[in-house]
Specification:
- By secondary structure, the chain is an alpha+beta fold.
- The protein has two domains: about 1-130, no CATH class; about 220-370, 2-Layer Sandwich (Heat Shock Protein 90), CATH 3.30.565.10.
- It has nine helices and seven strands.
- A hairpin with a 3-residue loop joins strand 6 and strand 7.
- The longest helix is centred in the first third of the chain and has 105 residues, at about 70-175.
- The chain is rod-shaped.
- The relative contact order is 0.07.
Length: about 375
């Protein structure tokens, strides 16, 4: 009796193991197909199924046979099945399973080879990327040092040029107080104006070099944007009258507005923009408008608009002027505009241009300032 029970339990265990193995195989069918060993699935499944069917049948005969045909007949049937089919079952099932297993191992081996190749390729790519990153870092460092050296050179050169230019202007001013005829005075005036223009250009180069190396620090003080606007316009009134231009300043809405910021840098931006407006406006008018827009309880946005009726800009020049601080020098986008862009960014602001050929140009500067404490925001 014990022998029968032990045999039946072994048959049941083998049948259950075969079924479980089939379930595991098909549960991982996607991985097996990835290893290009899909042919191993049906072979191994068939082998396991034959084993499962054989041992399952044996279990049923041993357990259910005595109730159906009696103990003696059940033992005879079990012995006949085992002696007649066991060797065939084991041969066919083992052959199918081992063939599928070989195919599976070959597929896994190919998959591992591909994984190793991919890992090697990835390692090579990472090494290549690291080399490229190191080269880019080296180039960026070289470019930074180059820009720093260029800025240092330009600042030194600008400083060296300002001294003799100031001497030329001073001597020209002294010479103008001596007895000169009309032609001599005209030549002297031309010399003085040229020296001042060159000094202004040298100062622009110096300022741009400072801005490029982040050496400009804004100085905060309480000021009235309306006063700064009028002062900047006043600088160009003589030149505008000489060219027959109408130069107006509309900033009455800011008469009572006081803010905390750097009035010198604000005036510098307006001066550059007004200089361009006068330079490129042969006739007509130039209008300066200033207004404010509250941001929050402590900050306000001041908007300056310089509009002229001059020659305007082409589409390419306008695109260049709106590119930001890294613009190139040219007819409409020189050192002055680059300085304006960088100063506007320092004051958390922006600079934009709108223009049409022969229709004029509109420069819009928006700058962020802190309000005077306890001044409130006028809405």
């Amino acid at each position: 009796m014990r022998s029968v029970l032990l045999t039946s339990m072994m048959d049941f265990g083998l049948a259950a193991a075969a079924a479980l193995a089939i379930w595991v195989l098909w549960r991982n069918a996607r991985v097996i197909r990835t290893a290009e060993a899909a042919a191993s699935l049906p072979l191994m499944t068939a082998g396991l199924a034959i084993w499962g069917v054989y041992y399952g049948a044996q279990f049923l005969i041993v357990i259910g046979g005595p109730f159906l045909v009696g103990m003696g007949d059940a033992e005879q049937i079990s012995e006949a099945v085992e002696s007649g089919l066991r060797w065939l079952t084991n041969l066919v099932a083992t052959g199918l399973f081992l063939t599928g297993l070989v195919l599976l191992f070959r597929g896994i081996n190919r998959l591992l080879n591909r994984v190793h190749e991919s890992a090697d390729a990835l390692e090579h790519e990472i090494s290549h990327r690291d080399n490229e990153a190191a080269e880019l870092k080296s180039e960026a460092e070289h470019e930074r040092h180059f820009r720093l050296a260029k800025s240092e050179f330009m600042m030194g050169l600008s400083h060296e040029l300002r001294t003799p230019l100031n001497g030329v202007i001073g001597l020209a001013s002294l010479l103008s107080n001596t007895g000169l005829d009309k032609d001599q005075r005209k030549l002297l005036n031309t010399l003085e104006q040229s020296a001042k223009a060159m000094l202004a250009r040298v100062s622009d180069v110096f300022d741009l070099s400072l801005l490029e190396t982040n050496r400009v620090e804004l100085r905060s003080s309480l000021f009235h944007p309306a006063d700064v606007s009028r002062a900047a316009v006043g600088l160009f009134e003589p030149l505008a009258r000489e060219k027959g231009l109408a130069l107006t300043c509309d900033c009455e809405s800011l008469d009572e507005r006081s803010v905390i910021g750097d009035p010198v840098r604000v005036r510098q931006i307006l001066t550059h923009l007004l200089s361009n407006a006068v330079k490129f406006t042969p006739s007509g008018e130039i209008r300066v408008h200033a207004s404010s827009q509250p941001i929050d309880a402590d900050h306000v946005e001041i908007r300056f608009v310089i509009e002229d009726s001059g020659i305007g800009m082409s589409a390419s020049d306008l695109e260049q002027a709106n590119q930001g601080p890294a613009l190139q020098t040219g007819a409409h986008s020189g050192i002055g505009l680059s300085i304006c862009w960088r100063l506007a960014e320092l004051m958390d602001g922006n600079l934009a241009f709108k223009s049409e050929l022969d229709r004029g140009t509109r420069a819009i500067v928006t700058l962020r300032f802190q309000l005077e404490p306890d001044a409130g925001v006028e809405i």
